[in-house]
TrEMBL record:
<dbReference type="GO" id="GO:0003677">
    <property type="term" value="F:DNA binding"/>
</dbReference>
<dbReference type="Pfam" id="PF00126">
    <property type="entry name" value="HTH_1"/>
</dbReference>
<keyword id="KW-0804">Transcription</keyword>
<dbReference type="Pfam" id="PF03466">
    <property type="entry name" value="LysR_substrate"/>
</dbReference>
<dbReference type="InterPro" id="IPR000847">
    <property type="entry name" value="LysR_HTH_N"/>
</dbReference>
<comment type="similarity">
    <text>Belongs to the LysR transcriptional regulatory family.</text>
</comment>
<dbReference type="InterPro" id="IPR036388">
    <property type="entry name" value="WH-like_DNA-bd_sf"/>
</dbReference>
<dbReference type="GO" id="GO:0003700">
    <property type="term" value="F:DNA-binding transcription factor activity"/>
</dbReference>
<dbReference type="InterPro" id="IPR036390">
    <property type="entry name" value="WH_DNA-bd_sf"/>
</dbReference>
<protein>
    <submittedName>
        <fullName>LysR family transcriptional regulator</fullName>
    </submittedName>
</protein>
<dbReference type="InterPro" id="IPR005119">
    <property type="entry name" value="LysR_subst-bd"/>
</dbReference>
<feature type="domain" description="HTH lysR-type">
    <location>
        <begin position="1"/>
        <end position="58"/>
    </location>
</feature>
<keyword id="KW-0238">DNA-binding</keyword>
<keyword id="KW-0805">Transcription regulation</keyword>
<dbReference type="GO" id="GO:0032993">
    <property type="term" value="C:protein-DNA complex"/>
</dbReference>
Length: 312
């Protein structure tokens, strides 16, 4: 059924005048009359009673009018929803992320995205890098926030944030008062680290950096979450290395100190399927880029600030 004919019928039924209905629809009167005749032929009954005195609805027309309005209303609502979906205004976004993203990086992204797209449902899934890569390939998550290197194989990426690892020390540690020190000075220290079974990129970087400095870290305790590692550092059970954005948090008893050595950067990537049709992905990427740029402008050496706050 031609929706234009339904619109013309509703206009005539409401105006009870072909001329006013045509003017309202911005067409000539003959077009309205012709289309309504075709609609009546399609339906098999008369909708309007035409006479010199004017236009009236037939019994069939008065019954059909609310149905025509309902059809047009549903079509318009459907079109609005599709447009909103195409613009990323509604829908769903499933985000996978590694544990350390919760430290000052992910929360502002989510706040900004919710402010711009409050009707998009967010589903958050903590996952390691390997699990996120598999989930992206299976399309069970829309966006991954994972450490470099890029997964490849039809998965697009962009850099979210990156910086060398910093030393996280008990506030009472002798090296905590230093502005910086060489990594080799931690050779005899006990480390608290992620377990190898977690397949953590941070762990790989720490082990590689320590090897370059001439030692293997002596593992005193293992934990699967960043906040647990920092709690162990605060309890003076060992030292560890953490991303720069983790140092923006100030857990009691922990001091962060830069390493003099040329440390490999720990980078977090936004990752998504290059063939994904979810428009909310592009919106989230723009929000992430703008949010991280603002964070870079207002960030003033958070590692030293954290360390000084802990020693004051």
């Amino acid at each position: 059924m031609d929706l234009r004919r339904l619109r013309y019928f509703c206009a005539v039924a409401e105006e009870l005048h072909f001329g006013r209905a045509a003017e309202r629809m911005h067409v000539v009167q003959s077009a309205v009359s012709q289309q309504l005749k075709l609609l009546e032929q399609e339906l098999g009954f008369s909708l309007l009673q035409r006479s010199r005195q004017g236009v009236k609805l037939t019994l069939q027309g008065s019954v059909f009018l609310p149905e025509a309005r309902a059809i047009l209303s549903r079509v318009e609502a459907g079109m609005q929803r599709v447009r909103a979906l195409a613009d990323g205004l509604v829908g769903r976004l499933v985000i996978g992320f590694v544990d350390n993203v919760l430290w000052s990086t992910l929360p502002p992204l989510l706040r900004e995205f919710r402010a711009k797209r409050p009707m998009v449902e967010l589903i958050l899934k903590p996952m390691d890098r390997v699990a996120q890569t598999e989930a992206l390939r299976a399309s069970t998550i829309d966006i991954g926030i994972l450490p470099s290197p890029p997964p490849g194989q039809e998965i697009a990426t962009s850099l979210l944030v990156g910086a060398p690892l910093l030393a996280a020390l008990p506030a009472s540690h002798p090296l905590a008062a230093r502005e910086h020190f060489a990594l080799a000075e931690l050779a005899e220290e006990r480390f608290v680290l992620f377990p190898p079974t977690m397949r953590s990129r941070i762990l790989d970087l720490i082990v590689a950096a320590c090897a370059d400095a001439g030692f293997a870290p002596r593992v005193a305790q293992e934990a699967e979450q960043m906040h647990t590692l920092l709690a162990l550092v605060s309890a003076e059970l060992g030292v560890t290395l953490v991303p720069e954005w983790v140092a923006r948090a100030h857990p009691a008893g922990v001091t962060y100190v830069p390493i003099e050595d040329r440390m490999p950067p720990y980078e977090l990537l936004l990752a998504w399927r290059s063939d994904s049709l979810n428009p909310a992905i592009a919106v989230f990427r723009k929000v992430a880029e703008a949010t991280m740029q603002r964070a870079d402008r207002i960030s003033v050496d958070p590692a030293r600030t954290a360390g000084l706050d802990q020693r004051s």
